[in-house]
Structure formats: C-alpha cells, structure tokens
C-alpha cells in the first residue's frame, strides 16, 4: 500500500468532501480487506451499529492513518472510511451467507460448516442471527424489493465522486445528476431503456442548466 519511496498514498478530495482519483480505488480496496478481517470487525454482531466504535477508531488510527494521507480534514476522512468499511462489512457477511447457506441443510449442519478464517463462535452466532424469524422476514422483503428494481446500474464499483471528477476533467464542466445517471445506466451500445428515458426526462426538468449529451 506504500509508494515506492516509502511515502503514504495521497488521497485527494473534491468540493463535496468525497475522495477522487485512482487513489480512491486503492483506499476503497484496502477498506474492503479490513472490513472482512474478523480480528478487526467480528461478524457475530447483529448490525454494524452494535460494534463498539473503538473497533473502527483503533483500525483507523493504527492501520489507515499510517498508510494514507488525506487531502481533507480528518473528520471527513474518518467519515468516508467509516462508511466504506460499514458497507463492505455488511456486504461481506451477505456473501458469506450466500456461499455457505444451504436451504436443504439444517441449522446445526450450517453452524458446523465453519468458513475458513472465521472463528467458530462468531460463525455460530451469525448463523443464529440469520435463522432468527425477524431476520428471515427482513431478508424475504429485501429479495422482493430487489426484484422490483428494473433499471440496471452499469457503472461498476467506481463512485460518482470519482466519475464526476473525470467527467469534469474531460469537459471542463461540472456534470449534473442526470449526466451522471446517463453515464452509469447505458446499455453496451450506449442507448437507454424506455424506463431510463422517462427518468432522464424528469431529471432534465429538475436540472435544466446543465448540458446534455
């Protein structure tokens, strides 16, 4: 994670206090590694807010700060890293469950099938949480919500802050929300689906002072 001369990775921030540039991708990837390290952020807590804040603070101070130089206030840097690790911790737990859950197996069998690198007690607690009636009901609702999302996002994992900075560098103009939407919801041939065209028309009315491609 260090540059060749031993200096830390410098992360620039834009006027909305969001990281930009390739270094943002390096930071996000590193946050993903930390978020899935059970020695730093255990998976047996039911929800992210249940984790003691000291877990994150210790990680930021001991691991993040020596490796990254943030061109913003520490408050902004902490807020971004906190949000990034929170999202990646949650999605990491979901991936574990999708990989190791088997609807044809019993709860006890799944508990005994401990993933590599996960402490048994943490996995047992997490499986119990997943089999909780409220958790199962919430999971079903989320599946139904995802089924109704008919407009596909094609922008990959690159955040809009970074994409916005790249578009500004190319055009010299600050892109509006609808331009960012266009850039991340096009089909391979560059065209839009009918549902997307309707949405863009609404965005044009709400954001009339930006140029449209």
From TrEMBL:
Tell me the domain of life: Eukaryota
Pfam families in the cross-refs: Transposase_24
Q: Where is this region: Disordered?
A: 151-176
Q: Which InterPro entries match?
A: Probable_transposase_24 (IPR004252)
Protein name stated in the entry: Uncharacterized protein LOC104238578 isoform X2
């Amino acid at each position: 994670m260090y540059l060749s001369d031993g200096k830390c990775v410098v992360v620039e921030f834009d006027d909305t206090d969001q990281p930009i540039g390739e270094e943002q991708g390096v930071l996000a990837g590193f946050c993903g590694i930390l978020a899935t390290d059970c020695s730093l952020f255990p998976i047996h807590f039911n929800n992210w807010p249940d984790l003691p804040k000291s877990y994150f603070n210790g990680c930021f101070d001991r691991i993040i700060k020596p490796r990254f130089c943030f061109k913003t206030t520490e408050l902004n840097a902490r807020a971004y890293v906190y949000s990034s690790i929170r999202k990646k911790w949650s999605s990491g737990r979901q991936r574990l469950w999708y990989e190791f859950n088997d609807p044809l197996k019993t709860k006890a069998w799944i508990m005994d099938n401990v993933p590599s690198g996960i402490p048994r007690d943490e996995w047992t607690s997490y499986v119990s949480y997943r089999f909780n009636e409220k958790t199962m009901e919430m999971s079903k609702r989320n599946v139904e919500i995802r089924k109704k999302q008919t407009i596909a996002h094609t922008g990959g994992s690159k955040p809009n802050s970074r994409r916005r900075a790249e578009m500004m560098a190319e055009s010299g103009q600050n892109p509006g929300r609808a331009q960012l939407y266009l850039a991340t919801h096009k089909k391979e041939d560059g065209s839009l689906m009918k549902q997307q065209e309707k949405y863009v028309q609404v965005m044009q009315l709400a954001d009339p002072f930006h140029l449209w491609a």
